[in-house]
Amino acid sequence: MLRSVLAALLSTSLAAAPLSAQSTYDSVDPFIGTGGEGHTFPGAVAPFGMVQVSPDTDTTCQVRDCYGHAAGYRYDDSTIQGFSQTHFSGSGHSDLGDFLMMPVAGDTVPLDPGSAAKPDTGYRSRFSHDTEVARPGYYAVTLADSGVRAELTAGTRVGVHRYTFPAGKAAHVVLDLRSSLYDYSGKILWSSVRVRADGTITGMRETRGWAPARKLFFAIRASAPLTGHAFHNREEKIAYKGFQGPGRGRTDVAQLQGQALVAALDFGHLTRPLELKVAISGVDEDGALANLDSEVGGFDAVAAVSRTAWQQALDRVDLDAPAPMKRKVATALYHAMIAPGVFSDVDGRYRGPDDQVHKADGFTFHSTFSLWDTFRAEHPLLLLVQPEQRNRDFVKSLLASQQESPFGILPVWQFHGRETWTMIGYHAVPVIADAYLKGVRGFDTDAALAAMVKSATYGPYGGLDEYMKRGFVPIDKEPEAASKTVEYAYDDWTIARMARALGKTDIAATFDKRAANWRNSFDAKTGFLRARKSNGAFRTPFDPTAINYGSDYTEGNAWQYSWFVPQDQAAMFALLGGDKAAVAKLDAMFNYDNSKLDYSHAEDIAGLIGQYIHGNEPSHHVAYLYSYAGQPWRTQERLAQIVASQYKAAPDGLSGNDDLGQMSAWLVFTALGFYPVAPGSNQYVIGRPFVNRAALTLPNGKRFTMVADDLTDANRYVGRVTLNGRPLDRTFLRHEELMRGGELRFAMQATPNKAWGAAPSARPYSMSTAAAK
Q: How far, in whole angstroms, is CA 396 from its chain's centroid?
């Protein structure tokens, strides 16, 4: 039955299309994930850029409706409201959309966007996908109502808009400081705008959104002189039409402050396209101006630099695959290189979590850390495909944020230097530990370990006081208690690993003991992770399929979270009754009949295969767990099932939020044939490849190549694996082996090789069995 289901799901053929000669850069499709619930944007951004300039198709949504517009753009919308400068890529929460700009042609300049149903009532415009072009660092579209051709590009700290206006029509730009992608009222606390003597437009706003009291400043310089301007505070509801005659608006002021500012900028009748170069800063207007000057040239110059940067970043992974698969994997690699983004100005200044200005000493400060998601595969991938300096900057940024935090702990979910306290765990810890254990140096390791311990012992956070006292988080004291217990235990294990590597055996012993705390919430009788009360009893009634936010589990249920013991899967399998019982339970999870279940109340529960939920992160390692039971051929089957059903080379090609690159990083690793189930172990569990060949240029300059011989739809099983020409009988690859360069070669076949990887000695790392290997 499983084979027939897999055959049906493999609709994107590995053999149907000829191998593409395109580079990785040329294969990227930024529209993948802009439909469905992928929440990606198609606009322009440089690798890890501070500015993400992109179209917003609707920012007027209300509360829950904004979830679908978390990135500003939805592929199924038919109008564009404007182009704002900041966006999340694939987040599960809305915010940003700062400093929206919209070109307007003609005599009348509306000050309000109008509605998607009636775009003629405002500056909003209809558009057609037929006129859109998107590639890394570049986006273009024709605004149907005005006839303006809009193009966008971005450097590290600047975005550049180029608007080509119809001949004979006056050129205007609306700058709307009211627009936001956050979904609650009162979101704009304060804003300002002014025209400087040289015509540069500067300003700022402070928002109360997902992150509280977020300050952002901007500077805009146009390629043509202003012939007029009008600033309005729409709290006053001033009518405005044109720049001449009665009711022309506040042309008498060079600056304005308020909570609902909108500017109309006039450039007259132009004979060439209008370019507007925009820079942002979290510090002040001077920082935005310095950032503006730091990247020289106009649209074409910035676009050329951005293109080169993307080519260099993406072509570090040379892919050989049929065009549809290459398109998916190349785009996934692109999405994995958008965040964490630069957030320090060109002079090194940045605004930290204490809302104070700091200066990065010898590193570039990065923010936008979606750590609950990205510790799993996103950061491990970047350790392989980005220079060591970039990964060192990530670590230093996390440590700087800890030192500047009013609470003295590492970031949880941070953007623009501000903490949101979203999701659970202290997952900056495994990011730092994994980086150190994989050779990243150049940061204060003693300070790093101290920061990790401080985060793991800060009692007021997430029930940690109870966890340290009892060895588990009690549900009658703290919500999402079962999930928190196991996630804390994993993070604790990574602290122990780094402490031991640094010779801090006392710290290692303490956190080794805490790493076993997952056992305290695992119910061997039912075979599930369960929430316990402070009296030690498991909470009843118990339904392993129940998903209730704020309850026992975080964005999931017992089926997903019962597998989250990446540091000791062998011990968890033993509690289940051994390998056979573990495999049966894994199969039961994937084969579960959901027909009588309703998860419509749970917005992040997407991409279901039984009770496996690929659209959300707690399930991401589960398909690889068959290898811990000596049956890697079943992992190979499940991976084929997941890749075929959860990823498409289309706008709705992601089954769930990309979550700042985690969904994408999963696909990149899986396509290469291995995956980091337990970051901190320095091992990658071998699955099966989905591309014919991939060559990685590693941070040390060496090349590591994966080759899949005879890879077809039919040949989805691994018959044999060799590493540098020698048989590899184990189901894991060591990080040091990968970093030495060389070749990992798979021989693919139509039937499973049930002998390969079956021996206990062939299985990946588990804490309880590591000493025996």
A: 19
Average pLDDT, the chain: 93
| CATH code assigned at 78 | 2.70.98.10
The residue assigned the tokens 């670590």 is 395
Strand, coil or helix: 250: strand
Regarding whether 740 and 767 lie in a shared domain, the answer is: yes
Q: 238 pLDDT exceeds 60?
A: no
Same domain, 695 and 759: yes
Q: For residue 594, what are its two tokens?
A: 């959901």
CB 676 within 8 A of CB 684: yes
pLDDT of residue 58: 85
**Is the per-residue pLDDT at 270 higher than 60?**
yes
CB 428 within 8 A of CB 498: no
Indicate if 678 and 718 belong to the same structural domain: yes
Mark whether 50 and 80 lie in a shared domain.
yes
Residue with tokens 């785009």: 331
At 221, the amino acid letter reads: R
Residue type, 472: F
315 CB-contact burial (10 Å; exposed 0-12 / middle 13-18 / buried 19+): middle
Give me Rg for the CA atoms of the chain.
26
The answer to whether residues 677 and 758 belong to one domain is yes
pLDDT value at position 6?
A: 39
- CATH code: domain of residue 750: 3.30.2080.10
* Domain final position from 257, 279, 310: 310
Question: Who's near 578: CB < 8 A, 6+ residues apart?
Answer: none
Report the C-alpha gap between 96 and 209 in whole angstroms.
8
Alpha helices in 273-386 (DSSP H): 285-294, 299-314, 323-335, 371-374, 378-385
> Does 52 share its domain with 146?
yes
Q: State how many domains the chain has.
A: 2
Evaluate whether residue 516 is within a structural domain. Answer: no
Bridging pattern class, strands 742-749 and 703-709: parallel
The pTM for the full model equals: 0.95
Q: What is the reported pLDDT for 245? A: 30
Residue finishing a domain among 310, 335, 361 = 310
pLDDT at residue number 242:
37
| Residue 263 belongs to a domain | yes
Residue 437 corresponds to which tokens in the numbers above? Answer: 């254990």
Sequence-distant (6+) residues with CB within 8 A of 16 are 322, 324
On whether residue 229 sits in a domain, the answer given is: yes
Same domain, 125 and 79: yes
Per-residue pLDDT tens for 151-170? 999 999 999 999 999 999 99
Torsion of CA 477, 480, 485, 491, to 10 degrees: -120
In the chain, the amino acid numbered 96 is L
Q: How far is CA 123 from the centre of its chain?
A: 31
| Residue 67 φ then ψ, to 5° | -55, -45
Q: For the purposes of burial, counting CB atoms within 10 Å of the CB of 705, is it exposed (0-12), middle (13-18) or buried (19 or more)?
A: middle
The answer to whether residue 469 sits within a structural domain is no
Q: Residue 684 pLDDT more than 70? A: yes
User: Pick from 318, 410, 407, 326: which is nearest to 372 by CA?
Assistant: 410
Cβ–Cβ under 8 Å, residues 663 and 377: no
Average pLDDT over residues 524-550: 94
Range of the domain at 631: 1-30+579-773
Q: Is the same domain home to 104 and 12?
A: no
8 Å CB contact between 357 and 351: yes
Pick the closest to residue 219 from 203, 238, 205, 235 (CA basis). 203
CA distance linking residue 313 with residue 496, whole number of Å:
33
Q: What are 387-409's pLDDT values in tens digits?
A: 999 999 999 999 999 999 999 99
Instruction: Give tens-digit pLDDT for 570-592.
Output: 999 999 999 999 999 999 999 99
DSSP 453: H
**How far is 582 from 56, CA to CA, in rounded Å?**
47
The Cβ of residue 392 has, within 10 Å, a number of other Cβ atoms equal to: 18
Residues 569, 564: Cα–Cα separation, whole Å: 8
